[in-house]
Amino acid sequence: xSLKVYIDGKFYDxxxxxxxxxDHGFLYGDGVFEGIRSYSRLVxxxxxxxxxxxxxxxxxxxxxxxxKKEMTKIVIDTxxxxxxxxxxxxxxxxxxxxxxxxxxxxxxxxxxIVITDKIQLYPEKLYRDGLKLITVPxxxxxxxxxxxxxxSLNYLNNILAKIEAINSGYEEALMLTASGYVAECxxxxxxxxxxDSLITPSVYLGILKGITRSAVMxxxxxxxxxxxxxxxxxxxxxxxxxxxxxxxxxEIVPVVSIEKRIIGTGKPGKITSxxxxxxxxxTKVDGVxx
Length: 290
Ligand code: PMP
What we know:
Blueprint: E1 4-7, E2 10-13, H1 24-28, E3 31-39, E4 42-43, H2 46-59, H3 68-81, E5 87-94, E6 111-118, H4 124-129, E7 131-135, H5 156-167, E8 172-176, E9 182-185, E10 189-194, E11 197-201, H6 211-222, E12 226-230, H7 234-238, E13 242-247, E14 251-258, E15 261-262, H8 270-283, E16 288-289
Parallel strand pairs: 7-8, 7-14, 11-12
Antiparallel strand pairs: 1-2, 1-6, 3-4, 3-5, 4-16, 5-6, 8-9, 10-11, 10-13, 13-14, 14-15
């Protein structure tokens, strides 16, 4: 059976799942989205993702015409229809069809799209050997212009950073704020461990308030770490005992070097490995069953 995609009340075969070229999501990146994951028929941190979607849309004055409860049901129905146990879910709300001008008032109805697919797991090697990062020249969007807390369809800032990392022979980029403090990576948040402290950049610096980030902070507290949100410099990262990234798709990925400065032992750290284990456990119990 071909994968079915939900668009505005109907399910379409993957090959027929299309939106208008006049949709402002396509023309201007005018819309918001979420990347969600399900584990053995359990949608992980579902409420948190739905809440963030509605907060993102509120920030850009994009009205979602259905309730959170209805939105939740649509995602569950799509997962069931596609008979997916472990899935990656892409939930998108666009401004909808308008004319060629920017004016969002011309877009009468927002569009809702739900794509559910098999999860593409990252290579095992990444978790075993760790990731090497490079800091890139493009700073993260400044909050005063486009707050990274809004998970919008415009990811050019992150894409530019990704291109710069790839051009330098690296897979992932460390992005700084315009003032030069550590922000996040192109699609993941960043953490360090120093002694018994777990530290991650504060949201006010201009990062996405990651849902995996929050889950890892909770786990950190439970296993007795001091958990802090703070301002971090590259030097704080270079001299950390351990470093890792968090995100829905990647979960927890150890980082072993930044610009060739080895972090800790140069291997995934003990506390990171423990957090990875605890996170796995959490994905088995936390979520909405379908
Ligand atoms: N930062 C950015 C820029 C992201 O796009 C994402 C999501 N892929 C994250 C951080 C991680 O957020 P979450 O844990 O909610 O997936």
